[in-house]
Amino acid sequence: MTGPAERPADPDTAAGQWLAALGGQPAVTTVADPKPPTGAELAERMDLLAVPGQDREEAAAGLPDPGRDPARWEALIRCHQQLYADPGPDVPSAAPDWPTAPAALGSAGRYFYVHLYLLALPHALERQRRLGIPDGIVAATFADLGAKLTTYRLGHGTGGFDRQGWIVRHFRGTLHRLGRLQFERGVLDADTSGGDAAAAGGPAHGDPVLQVHIPGDGPLDPAGCDASFAAAREFQARHFPGAPHRHATCHSWLLDRQLAGHLPADSNILAFQRRFTAFGARPVGDDDVLEFVFHTPPGTADLDRLPQSTTLHRALVRHLRTGGHWRTAHGWTELP
């Protein structure tokens, strides 16, 4: 946060337009503006967000100073205001539409949203304290930002972060990691899912549901998943008693029933599928498979160069080679 003042971005360039768009978001005067962290505070925040060591120096060096980098600082302030301009932790709301920075901004753009979340962390932690969330769950939840930095480097070969919309959930307090799985409070949107499950005893459109997300940091072992589901209902009842949840839903390529024809019957993925009753649409999900399994950004995959080191790798690529498509499937289950 020292050094020469940043040259203002030309408003006619992509970078200038991007900064102007973010800086022009509506002001929210009820949200207190963040302050630049000290060196010790910054290190503590990076620890809690599990920022990988190879990203820390570059991310810290690019954190803008309000006096020297006014355009980037104002853009961060407006994003911070929009981040917390929601109805509150009991009411899920849509994530802001924040575009990824133009390549011309280089490292400052690739880490822009990391800077946002570093600045926003104190407010998020205060929310967690008010809700009484245990420290271990808080740490496991916020470590997801570091995980996304890791996958960005795997996919792009350089440091950066492009999951700004995803991490909104963590900071607003609607998503928590409970053991192996993440659970996000929401409602079933039949339009997005392509239908509801009311006729089969599942959730109807507009019903509160816990949306299940699967971090990519380990096997989906049944015992770990059992423990997560067992913890979820108690956690929600204790910390969010105003919105009881009977059902959980999952929307993922991991629920594609085609996998049964390619994986051993006792595989963890198939065991996970059996927890859910299928419903709704099944749109093509090839890009999700390639990105989340092989860390290849959409439109960049070369099937001949993808790793083939596991049964899952070989099954996924073999199906694509033969002209098949993987599907994003929807499922519901009753919480235990």
UniProtKB/TrEMBL annotation:
Source taxonomy: Bacteria, Bacillati, Actinomycetota, Actinomycetes, Kitasatosporales
UniProt cross-references to InterPro entries, sorted A to Z: GNAT_C, NAT_N
Organism from which the protein derives: Streptomyces globisporus
GNAT-like C-terminal domain: residues covered: 175-332
Pfam families in the record: GNAT_C, NAT_N
Domain N-acyltransferase N-terminal: 41-173
Protein's recorded name: Acyltransferase
